Amino acid sequence: MIVYFSGTGNTRHCAAQLSRLTGDELFELGPDELSRPGGILLDTSDGRIVWAFPTYAWGVPPVMERFMSEVALGEKAMSARHYMLTTCGDDMGYTDLQWRKIMLARGLDVAGAYAVVMPNTYTLMPGFDVDSRELALKKMEKSRSRIALIAKAMEEGSGDLLVRGSFPWIKSKIYYPLFKRFCMSPEPFHTTEACTACGLCSRICPLGNISPGKDKTPVWGRDCALCLRCYHSCPRHAIAYGSRTSGKGQWLCRK
Question: Which CATH number characterizes residue 200's domain?
Answer without folding.
Answer: 3.30.70.20
